[in-house]
Every structure is written in C-alpha cells, then in structure tokens.
Protein 1
Amino acid sequence: MKRTFLILTVTSIFVASLSAFKPEPKTEPAVNINNTLTPKIATTQMSGGELLINKSDCIGCHHKINKLIGPSYTDIAKKYPNNDKNVTYLADKIIKGGSGVWGKIPMTPHPKVSQSDAKLMAKYILSLKK
Ligand code: HEC
C-alpha cells in the first residue's frame, strides 16, 4: 500500500515534470527523479539488520536460503529460537567469529561491527523463521 502510494507520487512528479519542461521535453530531469527516488523506496522496505548485512561482507559467505561457505540465514533461524539470549550469542559470534557449530570452516571475526549493529543483524536473521 505504502509502495503503491510512493509509485503514484513518483509517477505524478514524473508527469508534472514532463509538462513543466514543455516545449522541450528533455528526458534528463525524468531520469534524475527516478535515480534519486528508487533507492529510497528499496531502503524503506528493508529492516536495519538486513541493510547492514547487505553492506557487509556477510553476503560472500551467507545466502538467505542457500548454504554457501556458511549456513543460510533461514537454517540459522530454524536452529535458534528468537530470544534475547540467542540474539546476544549470535551477535557475539558475528563479532568474534569461530567454528564448530556448523562444521569445520571458521567464520571470520568482524571486530569493526559494533555490538548494536551485530544485534540488529542477529535479530534480522532470527526473524526469518517461518
Ligand atoms: C568467510 C566467510 C564468512 C563471512 C564473511 C561471514 N560468515 Fe557467518 N559464518 C560462516 C561460517 C563458516 C559459519 C559456521 C561457523 C560454525 O560452524 O561455528 C558462520 C556462522 C554464522 C552464524 C551462526 C553462528 C552459530 O554459532 O550458529 C551467523 C549468525 C552468521 N554467521 C552471521 C554472519 C554475519 C551477520 C556476517 C557479516 C557480518 C557473516 N556471518 C560473515 C562464514 C562466514
């Protein structure tokens, strides 16, 4: 619903800008409007944790559904109930890294990720439980 509204807004800005640029309807202003608005729409649909994960190197080893080098986020969500204790445990593991839970391959530590960001990431992962 929110998205439809945004698209409608973008469309009307687009149409309005086209009529404003008569009699020379250049395509350039319309393209700029789309470029600046599209990422914002995508951003509002992602949770903070998902955004942080997408900006970090996690995607090199983890996928939402498929096992890569590390377990998929949905498999992690299946293994751990979504509670404070597990959010803290997983946030700690994201920062410190380690191995032995899913196999011998270690997860690299992420000392630059703050405790609060790591918790947001862990919360997002645990929220994927069906
Ligand atoms: C170099 C590859 C690699 C990168 C990069 C990586 N991981 Fe992992 N991750 C792994 C592996 C391998 C495991 C399994 C570790 C084990 O068996 O204990 C794992 C396990 C996990 C677990 C489950 C921990 C547990 O004890 O069950 C979480 C949560 C996780 N990763 C989140 C992340 C997040 C968030 C990032 C980005 C900040 C990230 N990982 C980056 C490889 C990686």
Protein 2
Amino acid sequence: MMMKKLLICSLAATFLCLGGISFADNGPADMMLQAEKDKAKKPKPAVFPHAKHQEFAKCADCHHSAKDGKQVAYVDGQEIGKCESCHYKGSGLPKKIETYKGAAHANCKDCHKKSAAEKPELAEKFKGCMPCHPKK
Ligand code: HEC
Ligand code: HEC
Ligand code: HEC
Ligand code: HEC
C-alpha cells in the first residue's frame, strides 16, 4: 500500500516536472520582426532566428521588464512584453533606445559587433545591414 502511494507520488512528480519543461514558453523559433507603431515609410522587417539565439544567449541578454520607467532585470518565468510596448516614439525613454528600431539596433547590433570582434569569421556574415535585413 505504502509502495503504491510512493509510486503514484513519484509518477506525479515526474509529470509535473515534464510539464514544467514542455510548457515553458520560449516563444516562436523563427520570427520576422517589424515595428507596428513607428513603422518607417519603407518598412524593413528583420529576420530573427529566436531558437538559434537561445542556444548561446541568455533570455536576460534581450528580455527585461520595467517599473516606474526604470529597467527591471529579467527573471525566469516573467511575462515577456513586446519591445514596442515600451520602446516607441513618445515613450520618454532615452533617445537612442526610444523606438523599437533604436532599442533593437542597440541590442542586436551591439552584440553582433562584439561577437564579430571575438570571432573574426563572423565579420563577413555581419557586414552592413546583414544578416538582419537581407536584400530581396
Ligand atoms: C543585428 C540586426 C540588425 C542589423 C545589422 C540592422 N538592423 Fe535595422 N532593425 C533591426 C530590428 C530588429 C529592427 C526592428 C524591427 C523592424 O521594424 O524592422 C530594425 C529596424 C530598422 C528600421 C525601421 C523599420 C521599420 O519598418 O520601422 C530601419 C529603417 C532599419 N532597421 C535600418 C537599418 C539599416 C539601414 C541597417 C544597416 C546599416 C540596419 N538596419 C541594420 C535589426 C537590425
Ligand atoms: C537574442 C535575443 C533574445 C534571446 C536570447 C531570447 N529572446 Fe525571446 N524574443 C526576442 C525578441 C526580439 C522577441 C520579439 C519581441 C517583439 O515581438 O517585440 C522575442 C519574443 C519572445 C517571446 C514572445 C513574446 C510575445 O510576443 O508573446 C517569448 C515568450 C520569448 N521571447 C521568450 C524567451 C525566452 C524564455 C528566452 C530564453 C530561453 C528568450 N526568449 C531568449 C529576443 C530574444
Ligand atoms: C516593460 C517595458 C519594456 C519592455 C517590454 C522592453 N524594454 Fe527595453 N527598456 C525598458 C526600460 C524602462 C529601459 C531603461 C531605459 C533607461 O535607461 O532609462 C530599457 C532599456 C533597454 C535598452 C538599453 C539598456 C540595455 O539593457 O542595453 C535596450 C537595448 C533595450 N531596452 C532593448 C529592448 C528590447 C530589444 C526589447 C524586446 C526584446 C525590450 N527592450 C523590451 C523597458 C522595456
Ligand atoms: C547576445 C548576442 C546577440 C544578440 C543580442 C543578437 N544576436 Fe544575432 N547572432 C549572434 C551570434 C553570435 C550569431 C552567429 C551565430 C552563428 O553563426 O554561429 C548571430 C546570428 C544572427 C543571424 C544569422 C543566423 C544564421 O542562421 O546565420 C541573424 C539573422 C541574427 N543574428 C539576427 C539578430 C537580431 C534581429 C537580433 C535582435 C533582435 C539579434 N540577432 C540579437 C549574437 C546575437
């Protein structure tokens, strides 16, 4: 009787655990990023392989939240808002990162620049507006 209860308990724990893994929301694997609020006259959608970045970057390298207009560091399991829900024209954030374009360029381009400095073989891949805005 006792054993049976133990077995059921450990089975339940296993399922809870598996559930925790399979339901963790890592977001879409591949995305096409495009500003909605501050869309440029000539939209420039950006290619973003999200899952691939999760293999080497931490969630906190890109995600955070905010309180009273100040950035709050990412914590596991937090709600993840669209960048543009906070970074948009008139948001009052510093000019360089006020808009989605500004925030994205600061986040994406800065890391690509750093990565290319560390791994010269990436320099070619990261030339100009590549690989984010590929020519059609
Ligand atoms: C490392 C990735 C990356 C690189 C490199 C990059 N961008 Fe972007 N860019 C983005 C992201 C992400 C956005 C925000 C999503 C969007 O609106 O396209 C964006 C937005 C923009 C927008 C606004 C588009 C719109 O519809 O509002 C313009 C214009 C733009 N980029 C121009 C450029 C130019 C010109 C270059 C090269 C000199 C460049 N970007 C290089 C990632 C990049
Ligand atoms: C290299 C940058 C980067 C990394 C690393 C990253 N993300 Fe993201 N993630 C993004 C961007 C950019 C978006 C699109 C945001 C938008 O649409 O404004 C996004 C979107 C999401 C969304 C969808 C949000 C929505 O619109 O509903 C979820 C969920 C998410 N990420 C979870 C995660 C988790 C969990 C991790 C870590 C395991 C992670 N991300 C790692 C950049 C990143
Ligand atoms: C809940 C609101 C909110 C969301 C969602 C948000 N940000 Fe921010 N972000 C802020 C605030 C507030 C700051 C701090 C501004 C300051 O320095 O005064 C900030 C700062 C930044 C900075 C400059 C500081 C740093 O960490 O390098 C970048 C770059 C940035 N955000 C990019 C992004 C990107 C990319 C996304 C989407 C993946 C995003 N933010 C989503 C509110 C937000
Ligand atoms: C924490 C650092 C970091 C951030 C932040 C980051 N990237 Fe990257 N990204 C990389 C590195 C490193 C690679 C090269 C991966 C490789 O080829 O091994 C890469 C590769 C890419 C590629 C090419 C993928 C391929 O299959 O060749 C695209 C497209 C890209 N990034 C877009 C973006 C966009 C858009 C953003 C912002 C939303 C972004 N990245 C933010 C580090 C970063």
